Amino acid sequence: MNLRFIVSLAWSYGFRVIFRGPSYIISSMSAPLTLLFIVSILSHGTLINYALVGGFLGLIASVALSSSGDAAFMRLQLRFQDLYVASKVSPSDYMIGLTLSYVIFSLPGIILYAILGAIFHIFTLGAVLALIGIMCFLVVGTSSISFIVSSSIKHVRNVWGIAGIMSVIMTVLPPTFYPYEYIPKWALYALSATPVTPAAVLAQWAFGLSPPMINELYIFVIETIIYFSMARYLTRWREN
After folding, report:
1. How far apart, in whole angstroms, are the C-alpha atoms of residue 238 and residue 240?
2. Which among 9, 191, 197, 234 has a CA at the least distance from the CA of 103?
3. d(Cα 206, Cα 128) in Å, to the nearest integer?
4. Residue 217 in contact with residue 83, Cβ under 8 Å?
5. Residue 22 domain-assigned (yes or no)
6. How far is CA 180 from CA 3, 149, 205, 216, in A?
7. What backbone torsions phi and psi does residue 157 show, to the nearest 5 degrees?
8. Is residue 240 part of a domain?
9. Are the CB atoms for 110 and 32 separated by under 8 Å?
C-alpha cells in the first residue's frame, strides 16, 4: 500500500476541492438537507430523528456515487490513471485515495449534521461509534459501485446522467430518511442490493429508533466486500 500517494490524492482531491469550489459543497448538501426539511414538515417533526441519522448516510453515499462522473472524466479525458500505470501505484491505492477524498469532501456536511444532531440530542457514545463504523463501510461500498460504473463507461458524456440517477435511486428509495418498518420485508431485501439500505437499518437500530434486524448486518458486510473486490478487479487500469 502506497500511503504517501493515498494521502496526497486524498488531500488534492478532498481538502483542496473544498476550498477551491465551495459551491460543490453546498450542492452536495442540498439534497439531504431538502429531504430533512420535507420529512420534518410532512411528519410534523415525528420523523426528524430518522431524517437526521439518515442524513449522514445519504450525504456520504450521494457524494461517493455521484463522483463516478469525476472518476470517468479523469480516466477518459484527463488520462489521470495513465500516469500511474507504469509506477508503483496500484489500482487499490488509487481507489483508496479517491475514496478517502470523498470522505474528506463530505466533512462540511457531516459537521453540519453533527451540529443538528447535538441540537436535537440524538447522540450517545455507542450510537456515535456505531455510526462511524457504518459510514466507513458505506463509503467503501458506494465508492466501489462508483468505480465499477465509471470503468464501464466508454464516453464521458454518458456518465453524468447515470451518476445523478444512481445517486437518487440509491439514497432516496431506501429507508434512509424514514423507518424501515414502513416497507414490506421483500421490498427491504430487494433494496438491500444498495449498501445504503442495510446501513440505514443498522443506523436506526444503533440510535434506538427501530428494532434490530441482524440479517442486514451480514448483508452489509458481505456486499461491501463483494463490491470492493469487483471494483478492484473490474476497474480499467490500463486502456487497450
Report:
1. 6
2. 9
3. 9
4. no
5. yes
6. 39, 27, 10, 11
7. -65, -20
8. no
9. no
Q: What is the pLDDT of residue 217?
A: 94
- 104 falls within a domain: yes
Cα–Cα dist 68/73, whole Å: 8
Strand segments (E) across the chain: none
Residues 57-81 have pLDDT tens digits of 988 888 887 776 677 666 666 666 6
Q: Which residue has the higher pLDDT, 200 or 32?
A: 200
How far apart, in Å, are the Cα atoms of 101 and each of 8, 13, 36, 61, 147?
A: 10, 6, 25, 13, 14
**What's the structural domain count of the chain?**
1
Q: Rounded distance, CA 141 to CA 228, Å?
A: 6
Residues 200-214: tens digit of each pLDDT:
999 999 999 999 899
Q: What domain range is 89 assigned to?
A: 3-234
Sign of CA dihedral 202, 165, 22, 74: positive
> Model-level pTM?
0.85
State how far the alpha carbon of 186 is from the alpha carbons of 43, 145, 174, 194, in Å. Answer: 25, 23, 13, 14
